[in-house]
């Protein structure tokens, strides 16, 4: 089934509550899970399923729902509830791997706070010689040893900027392309798309960056629903890779 198939969320929830009332919680769980298979981004359905998992002492499943809800809250810009859900996941299942997600959430919160502060502005900065020896100065430039690449992405997204973010380290460089603040492509070495973006993120610390505006949008090669979703997917990959390698 497709996610945009019609569904009456309130009716599904009322049906689940009726099944619970008549001591059929398993069927209520099945009904909610089936609806979420069709509409995985519906917060109301996930909240109700989380409530039911907890009432039935299904704590591992409840912790997984908390993590999923946290991601949806982040996409909605609701960082407080996202943090609450991650902490709840840890309390429900102490083995739940949420440390990297909490760290990234804190970075996103800090970036949002900086953007909301009156003194924070995107200003024209001097061009680092290693990045742009000639041409117009960048809109934004700096050192990724001092600021996270995710913070830079957040600034470009919040200002709905279109252009190319060049990331340079020693003799190697790559680009992340933005259209109206959304990441649509990346190039690095012989890679492009998500593969290139992942390599650039891994190589970002200690690199120099410079963003140049473009008057025209770029062709889309990265099809993530939004920047936060793309970043969280990468963080999940890193987390899985660390676990596979025997890390924490």
Folded structure, characterized:
The protein has a six-stranded antiparallel sheet. It has helices at residues 9-21, 25-38, 43-55, 59-75, 79-92, 99-116, 149-158, 193-203, 227-244; strands spanning 140-143, 163-169, 172-179, 182-188, 191-192, 208-213. It folds into two domains: 9-96, Alpha Horseshoe (Serine Threonine Protein Phosphatase 5, Tetratricopeptide repeat), CATH 1.25.40.10; 140-240, no CATH class. It is elongated. Helix 2 (25-38) packs antiparallel against helix 3 (43-55) and helix 6 crosses helix 7 (149-158). The two termini are 37 Å apart. It contains nine helices and six strands. The chain is of the alpha+beta class.
Coarse morphology:
elongated
Cα end-to-end separation: 37 Å
How many structural domains are formed by the residues? Answer: 2
Radius of gyration: 21 Å
Number of strands: 6
Helices and strands in order:
Blueprint: H1 9-21, H2 25-38, H3 43-55, H4 59-75, H5 79-92, H6 99-116, E1 140-143, H7 149-158, E2 163-169, E3 172-179, E4 182-188, E5 191-192, H8 193-203, E6 208-213, H9 227-244
Antiparallel strand pairs: 1-6, 2-3, 2-6, 3-4, 4-5
Describe the structure concisely for a colleague.
This protein is α+β, with helices and mostly antiparallel strands. The chain has 9 helices and 6 strands. The two termini are 37 Å apart.
Question: What tags apply to this protein structure?
Answer:
248 residues; alpha+beta; Serine Threonine Protein Phosphatase 5, Tetratricopeptide repeat; 6-stranded antiparallel β-sheet; elongated
